[in-house]
Design brief:
Elements lengths: L7 H7 L20 H14 L3
């Protein structure tokens, strides 16, 4: 199992600050990923400096 960069306690503090999802604009496009996964991806890039 993979460890999370954002633990549950921190996520409880951050989640209310994220705006709600906009309604879908129609067919097409990629499916939306979870907000927590997106945040962890951003933190990973900032932490490792990968491009």
């Amino acid at each position: 199992m993979q460890s999370r960069m954002v633990d549950d306690r921190l996520w409880e503090l951050i989640a209310p600050l994220i705006p709600p999802q906009p309604p879908p604009r129609g067919p097409g496009g990629s499916p939306r990923i979870e907000d927590r996964a997106a945040l962890e991806g951003i933190l990973f890039v900032l932490h490792t400096g990968c491009r």
